[in-house]
Amino acid sequence: MADVTTLRTAAETGLSKLFEVQRLKLPGAAIAREEAFRYFEAAGLPHRRVEAFKYTDLRAAVREAAPPAEVPDAETARNAVKTARGFAGIEAARLTFVNGHLVAALSDLSGLPEGLEVVTFAKAMAEGHPLLDHLAPVEQTRENPIYQLNAAFMADGAVIRVEAGAKIERALHLRFVGTGSAPFSTATRVLVVTGEESEVTILESHEGPDGIAYQPNDVLDVVIGDRARVLHSRLNIEGDAAIALSTVSARLGAGSHIETVNVVTGAVLSRHQLYLHFAGDDATATVNGAAMIRDGQLADSTLLADHAAVGGISREQFKTVIDGDATGVFQGKIIVRQIAQKTDGKMKSDCLLLTDEGQMMNKPELEIFADDVACGHGATCGAPDDDLLFYLMARGLPRPQAESLLVQAFLGEAIEVVTHEGARAAMIAETEAWLARRG
C-alpha cells in the first residue's frame, strides 16, 4: 500500500517554522511546549471535516502564519493604550498587555487588596511557579488544537491567586491591546486560582487596529475553590480584519459559582470556546454571550459543560444579532455523567436576523448518562417582529430607531445578568455603539 502524505497549508508550514525559531526563546518547560505543538502539528488547523469546527473552517480562513509580536517600545505602547476603550471608565486594578506582552508602566496594581496575588506569566514560567500545576484544568481542552497552539506559543499573561476567604471588592481588569501596521500574532495565558469561600471579579477587554490581519489566541484557565465565586466579563472589540481565537476553561469546586459573559462586535472571524467541568457537588454556572456582527463577519461560540458531580446547575443563554451577510455559530453540549444525579442544565441560543443575507448555525446537544436530571436546550432564529415594529413606528419612531430598540431589548436578556454594574453598563454601551454605527 502506498504511503499517505498529509498535505499541509502555507499557514501550517509557517507555524512549524515559527515554532522552531521561538521554542528556545520562550520561558518555561520546553518539553511541555514541544508536546503541545506536536499535538497541533498532527491535527493541523481545524477544518469542516472536523465536527467541532464544521461551521468555522480555520484551515481556509488562516492563509498565512503571522509572526509572534515583539515586545513594544514605551512610546508605541502608550500610543496604543491612549485610544483603548474596553472597560476604560471602570475603577479597577489593571494589567495592560500590548501585543501580548505585559507593560508594567501602563498597568495599575497599586494597593492590591490583601488576599490577592498577581504574578506575570512570563515570570511564573521562568521560575517554575507552583500554581502552574493548575494549568489546563479541564481535560477536554487538551484535545483542542487551538488550545494546544496557545500552549506551544504562550509568551506572557498572568497568574492570579485569591486566598481562601478573601472577598476582592475591586475588579481586576485584564486589558489586551494590539497595535501595528503588519500582521502579528499573540498567545497569552491567564491562570486564576481561587481559594475556598473567596470571591473575585475579572474583566477582560480585547481590541486592536482595523485593516490589519492580526491573530490573537488567548486562554483563561480558572480553578475555583469550594464555595468560591468568580465573576467574569469579556469584551471582544477586535479590529475588523483580526482572526481572534479565545478559550475559557474552568474547574468548579463544591458549592462554587462562575458567571461568565462574552460580548462580541469585533474581528472578521472569532471563535470563543468555553469548557466547564463541574468537579464538586452543587456547583452553579451562568454562561451568557451576545454577538453583534455584520458584513462578512463570522462569530462562533462553542460551549462544553461537563457535569461530573451531584446537583450541578448550569444556565447558558446566547444571543446573536446578524446584519448583512454575516454568519453566527453556536455549538453547545451539556454532558451529564452517571454520577451527576440531580443535575439541572438549561441551554438556549436565539438569533435575530436583520437582513435576508445573514445565516445562523445552531447545534445544541445533550449527552445524559444519569436518570435523575432536568436538562433541556433550544434554539430560535428569525426576523424582528413586524407587530412590535408597527407598534413602535405607529408612535412616531422611524423604523431604524424602532429596530434598534428591539435589538437592545433582545440583547439585554444576555447582558443583564452581569453582576458588576460598571461592566454591565460598558457592555450595554457597546451594543448602543454598534447600533449607532449601523445607522
TrEMBL record:
<dbReference type="Pfam" id="PF01458">
    <property type="entry name" value="SUFBD_core"/>
</dbReference>
<dbReference type="InterPro" id="IPR045595">
    <property type="entry name" value="SufBD_N"/>
</dbReference>
<feature type="domain" description="SUF system FeS cluster assembly SufBD core">
    <location>
        <begin position="184"/>
        <end position="410"/>
    </location>
</feature>
<dbReference type="InterPro" id="IPR055346">
    <property type="entry name" value="Fe-S_cluster_assembly_SufBD"/>
</dbReference>
<dbReference type="InterPro" id="IPR000825">
    <property type="entry name" value="SUF_FeS_clus_asmbl_SufBD_core"/>
</dbReference>
<dbReference type="GO" id="GO:0016226">
    <property type="term" value="P:iron-sulfur cluster assembly"/>
</dbReference>
<comment type="similarity">
    <text>Belongs to the iron-sulfur cluster assembly SufBD family.</text>
</comment>
<protein>
    <submittedName>
        <fullName>Fe-S cluster assembly protein SufD</fullName>
    </submittedName>
</protein>
<dbReference type="InterPro" id="IPR037284">
    <property type="entry name" value="SUF_FeS_clus_asmbl_SufBD_sf"/>
</dbReference>
<feature type="domain" description="SUF system FeS cluster assembly SufBD N-terminal">
    <location>
        <begin position="32"/>
        <end position="173"/>
    </location>
</feature>
<dbReference type="Pfam" id="PF19295">
    <property type="entry name" value="SufBD_N"/>
</dbReference>
